[in-house]
Design goal:
The chain has 333 residues and is of the alpha+beta class. The protein has a 5-stranded mixed beta sheet, covered by helices on one side. Strand 4 and strand 5 form a beta hairpin.
Length: 333
């Protein structure tokens, strides 16, 4: 339960007030202390199960007769407060109102308390329910934010992994069709490359679903079955933590996809440096450049978001004849 300290503060205040009240005999003190400590124990073990609401009410009924201070009414606030998280707002308000009726009956029957106690109970109940409502609202906001972040993460993963391989498949199949009659061996190699990309796409989809990948893919994987891509790595790629390596790999994938899809590049160069507490990636191509303003596409936007979440930066230089993408990410010690 959020705001878990509220019931413990109330139990502590009631316990101190009851044990310092006069007159006070030993049996009443022991019964009262045992009941209040039992309520505190319920707060410690309660994990939102409805049965604990019944236990609270039973303990309160046992504690009230032993309370010489008459402040047990404050503990009735813990019941609607806990019910707000367990059974909802309406039930919590109903229990709060029932508690007020029970206190009025108790005060009338025992002669303890006065109307001021009921007013204080009402004030405490209002504050407790307000705190509970605020906590629930915060929980809902955090859940919505987490869901939005997860949707964005999945969108980036689908675009950067599956989208990259689908682009490669399309390029290789177009190549196979173009060389089918003029150069059958080249067409066969293109079909083989397309088949490899399809297998890679399937493997990455499975990894994403299971989220059990042991280690991020290596930049060297980009050059397999892709003679138009050269990869040069300086330093130890494995020295960077997995999130940094994955961000660098996805950024290189996105730059390669854009070079092929939009720039019609014939050659792409990937250079990475892992040293000095920084991972730096530079991808250059000899294509026709980006067809739109750099950073406006979803893929480039996803690249920026992924890198910026790790405290890094992305720079894109489009001179109209080839594009250079530079990514820099700090590597924690």
């Amino acid at each position: 339960m959020p705001v878990r300290w509220v019931p413990f503060v109330l139990c502590g205040a009631v316990l101190v007030a009851g044990l310092t009240a006069r007159p006070l005999d030993v049996s009443s003190a022991l019964g009262f202390a045992a009941g209040v400590l039992g309520l505190a124990a319920v707060e410690a073990v309660d994990r939102g199960r409805r049965v604990w609401l019944v236990v609270r009410l039973a303990l309160l009924a046992l504690v009230a007769p032993f309370d010489p201070s008459g402040l047990t009414g404050a503990l009735f606030i813990t019941v609607p407060f806990a019910a707000y998280f367990t059974v909802g707002r309406r039930t919590a308000v109903a229990l709060g109102a029932a508690g007020a009726v029970l206190l009025a009956v108790f005060f009338a029957g025992t002669g303890q308390g006065d109307p001021g106690d009921l007013v204080m109970y009402a004030v405490g109940l209002t504050l407790a329910l307000t705190a509970a409502a605020f906590a629930v609202g915060q929980m809902d906001a955090v859940a919505a934010l987490s869901a939005a972040q997860e949707r964005n993460r999945l969108a980036r993963e689908i675009h950067d992994s599956l989208g990259h391989h689908l682009t490669a498949i399309a390029v290789q199949l177009e190549k196979a069709e173009a060389f089918r009659d003029r150069d059958p061996p080249a067409a066969g190699r293109a079909v083989t490359d397309a088949r490899w990309s399809a297998k890679q796409a399937l493997a990455e989809v499975r990894d994403s679903v299971r989220t059990l990948r042991d280690r991020p893919p290596s930049l060297h994987d980009l050059a397999r079955h892709a003679p138009d891509v050269t990869v040069d790595i300086t330093g130890d790629e494995d020295s960077a933590p997995p999130p940094v390596r994955l961000a660098v790999y996805r950024a290189a994938q996105e730059a390669l996809t854009n070079a092929r899809r939009h720039g019609n590049a014939r050659a792409v160069s990937v250079a990475a440096i892992f040293r000095g507490g920084t991972a730096t990636l530079t991808v250059t191509d000899d294509g026709t450049g980006l067809p739109e303003v750099p950073g406006s596409g979803f893929g480039l936007q996803g690249m920026r978001e992924r890198v910026e979440q790790l405290g890094g930066t992305v720079a894109i230089c489009d001179a109209g004849r080839g594009v250079r993408v530079t990514v820099s990410i700090p590597v924690p010690a």
